[in-house]
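Progress note, sequence design subtask.
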């Protein structure tokens, strides 16, 4: 059996096809987007979610590269394969944090296209809008076909300076000069695609393009980027089987592990299940389950946003927002919830069609783990020696099952310093999370035949089952510490039958429900094995 090649870090459609990388066929979406919807499209998706590959695929389609699409769905849909002049601007190349650096990047991108169509030498070399207009008109005149404009990651330069209002203002001014003339170019344009993470106000790219359609949350486009559950089981069947052998589980159980860790994204009311493509591709390439997406970049911009809105990470799940609020520009948002959704840290869990209300929550185990193990320590003040010392103490207490120290730290609020008391709340939550994480892992170590384990306590609201994932075929264990009387309930899900056991024996494991604290009530469930 030949080794399959997975496109880790490869976003160019031509390279994926010609060099034999695995490709999930999205070309039916491509055809319908280009021919059966609208002439100007905006799509918002999180980073590393396939936007750049989408742009690359569209570029090769509009350039008439029929040979690249052999055997794909679009081959049976497209008959003409017309070659259009395509201007693909990858704005993520504008990595400089200074407005002058953004100008230099735009100048370089434009110059390459101008040389191709022999229209170099405008009177004002910094008037980017006039240069773009001249370029589009020239290409249409010389080829006889209207031009295609693709702006990939249009908001990247602005997000790079999200905490600097003056730089944002300067970059917006540059952008408005660049995009402004597009409004008057409809007779010269066949198709326009803009991708990014979020929308910004006072940017001509949204106000000047006629009939710009935001498809980001429309049901028919939910699976345009990412890997749907159907695509995973269809295109990665043999890879799932190989990993199942390695992990000593059935293919069905392997799918469940992947689902727990990387699935759960929904981008509209249709609730189409979408896996994180970056993590899936890395998982199959390395044959290891890890938090690839979350750890692929330090979420510094996100931390700045959370600071701006004084957002509490302990109050992040099961949040409700109105449908209409999603189309607000980032600058006008009153809460961090929308940018957390657009960035991939939250997703749609439910939609109320009557009241037009979305319920947002953490999508999967990778993001849940990242919040508490990566983002929360960064969101705290890492330079505060007192906070650092406390976190280390918590970690050691967890490892040594030192419940007395944990209880003391949990109540020792006066020992925690931070930003106007906010760090105190987050460190307290981190103590609770690490305690529950440790307890759940000990349960898994003790009990055989466990698929997943969740520890949920009303007092602390921790959920750790996603992170722990599946181990072996058997029972699903859920421990719930329910009330002030320290009564513990053990619910076991075996197959499709549910059994509730109070103070009883099950699979060699006895639950006693008394103690001086909720923590002790749960810990006593470990005893008697």
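Output:
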């Amino acid at each position: 059996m030949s080794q399959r090649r997975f496109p880790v870090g490869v976003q160019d459609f031509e390279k994926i096809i010609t060099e034999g990388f695995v490709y999930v066929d999205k070309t039916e979406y491509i055809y319908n987007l280009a021919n059966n919807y609208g002439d100007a499209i905006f799509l918002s998706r999180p980073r590393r979610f396939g936007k750049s590959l989408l742009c690359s695929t569209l570029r090769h389609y509009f350039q008439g590269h029929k040979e690249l699409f052999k055997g794909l769905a679009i081959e049976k849909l497209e008959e003409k394969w017309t070659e259009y002049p395509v201007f693909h601007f990858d704005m993520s190349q504008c990595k400089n944090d200074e407005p002058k650096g953004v100008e230099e990047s735009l100048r370089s991108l434009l110059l390459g296209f101008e040389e191709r169509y022999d229209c170099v030498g405008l009177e004002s070399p910094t008037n980017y809008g006039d240069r773009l207009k001249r370029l589009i008109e020239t290409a249409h005149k010389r080829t006889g076909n209207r031009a295609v404009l693709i702006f990939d990651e249009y908001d990247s330069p602005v997000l790079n300076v999200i905490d600097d209002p003056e730089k944002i203002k300067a970059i917006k001014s540059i952008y408005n000069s660049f995009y402004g003339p597009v409004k008057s170019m409809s007779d010269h344009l066949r198709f326009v695609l803009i991708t990014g993470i979020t929308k910004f106000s006072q940017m001509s790219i949204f106000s000047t393009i006629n009939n710009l359609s935001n498809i980001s949350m429309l049901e028919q486009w939910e699976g345009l980027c990412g890997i749907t559950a159907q695509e995973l089981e269809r295109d990665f069947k043999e890879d799932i089987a190989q990993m199942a052998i390695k992990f000593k589980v059935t293919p069905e159980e392997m799918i469940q592990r992947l689902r727990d860790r990387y699935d759960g994204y929904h981008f509209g009311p249709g609730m189409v299940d979408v896996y994180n493509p970056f993590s899936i591709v890395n998982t199959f390439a390395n044959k290891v389950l890890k938090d690839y997406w979350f750890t692929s970049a330090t979420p510094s911009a996100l931390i700045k946003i959370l600071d701006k809105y004084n957002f509490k990470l302990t109050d992040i799940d099961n949040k409700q927002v109105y449908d209409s609020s999603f189309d607000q520009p980032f600058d006008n948002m009153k809460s961090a919830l929308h940018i957390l959704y657009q960035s991939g840290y939250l997703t749609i869990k439910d939609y109320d069609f009557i009241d037009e209300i979305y319920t947002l929550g953490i999508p999967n185990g990778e993001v849940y783990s990242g919040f508490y193990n990566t983002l929360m320590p960064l969101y705290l003040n890492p330079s505060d020696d007192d906070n650092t010392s406390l976190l280390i103490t918590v970690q050691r207490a967890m490892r040594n099952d030192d419940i007395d120290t944990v209880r003391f730290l949990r109540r020792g609020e006066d020992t925690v310093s931070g930003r106007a008391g906010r760090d105190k709340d987050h460190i307290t939550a981190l103590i609770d999370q690490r305690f529950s994480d440790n307890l759940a892992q000990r349960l898994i170590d003790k009990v055989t035949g466990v698929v997943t384990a969740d520890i949920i306590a009303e007092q602390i609201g921790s959920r750790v089952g996603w992170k722990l994932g599946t181990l072996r075929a058997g029972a699903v264990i859920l421990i719930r510490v329910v009330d002030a009387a320290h009564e513990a309930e053990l619910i076991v899900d075996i197959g499709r039958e549910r059994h509730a056991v109070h103070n009883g024996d099950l699979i060699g494991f006895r639950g006693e429900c008394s103690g001086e604290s909720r923590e002790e009530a749960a810990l006593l469930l470990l005893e008697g094995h």
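The first helix runs from residue 13 to 18. Work on this subtask will continue into the next period as scheduled.
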